[in-house]
Design a protein that fits this description.
Blueprint: H1 9-31, H2 37-52, H3 58-68, H4 70-96, H5 103-129, H6 134-147, H7 149-168, H8 171-197
Length: 210
């Protein structure tokens, strides 16, 4: 019967959900040393992009990208972690000040957080897709976030909604995000990111080599 065929859309969807779960588990395990979060996130995005095209095997795709991008992705992660910590610290500090004259500094910090989070939804995808130096990758992430602001806004809203549910609703949402959500978000974001990358020809942006 056609229902039991491996080519049936239902079974293919179930298989893909299983692959996304495996990628989420790999991402989680490879993030445990903390310093490897950047390389693990890059590998997850790379694997999700490949999964959309049914190219390769999820395990080989993941560890191939993890190995090849380890140094640069780690450098990007450390930069974003330090900058994020500084911005968060500034926001908390200025928010506790009663003097109205410091309101400008609070607004400035919030303004800096906008490109920070906007570029964050692109930077590891660019690292996974293209061959650049770390400064170039961060530069292109900021440029793409601004140039394709409608797509950026949609991804930021999705990410913000997930974070809101994790922080301010029942614990079930946080567990769901931890054990499946990262893979699901990366899979969804891979569609957005791939559509943006189509605007950049290989002549302008050198792509990965298989």
């Amino acid at each position: 019967m056609r229902f039991f065929s491996v080519d049936n859309v239902v079974w293919r969807s179930i298989a893909k959900l299983g692959q996304i779960w495996v990628l989420d588990l790999l991402w989680l395990l490879c993030c445990l040393p903390v310093i490897t979060i950047g390389a693990s996130t890059t590998a997850l995005i790379y694997s999700c992009m490949k999964l959309h095209k049914d190219e390769g095997h999820i395990l080989s795709n993941f560890f191939k990208s993890f190995k090849e991008n380890f140094l640069q992705a780690t450098g990007i992660w450390l930069i974003y972690a330090v900058v994020g910590a500084l911005l968060a610290g500034n926001l908390i500090f200025w928010n506790q000040m009663d003097n109205s004259s410091v309101k400008f500094m609070w607004i400035l910090t919030v303004a800096l957080l906008i490109p920070y989070f906007a570029s964050l939804v692109y930077v590891f995808a660019i690292q996974a897709k293209f061959i650049h130096t770390v400064p170039q990758t961060i530069h292109y992430a900021i440029v793409m976030a601004i140039k394709h602001w409608k797509t950026t806004l949609q991804m930021v809203i999705i990410l913000g909604l997930v974070l809101y549910l994790d922080l301010f609703t029942i614990n079930l949402a946080a567990y769901a995000t931890l054990f499946y959500g990262a893979g699901a978000i990366a899979y969804i974001f891979a569609l957005y990111q791939s559509n943006v990358f189509e605007h950049y020809s290989p002549k302008d942006e050198p792509e990965w080599e298989d």
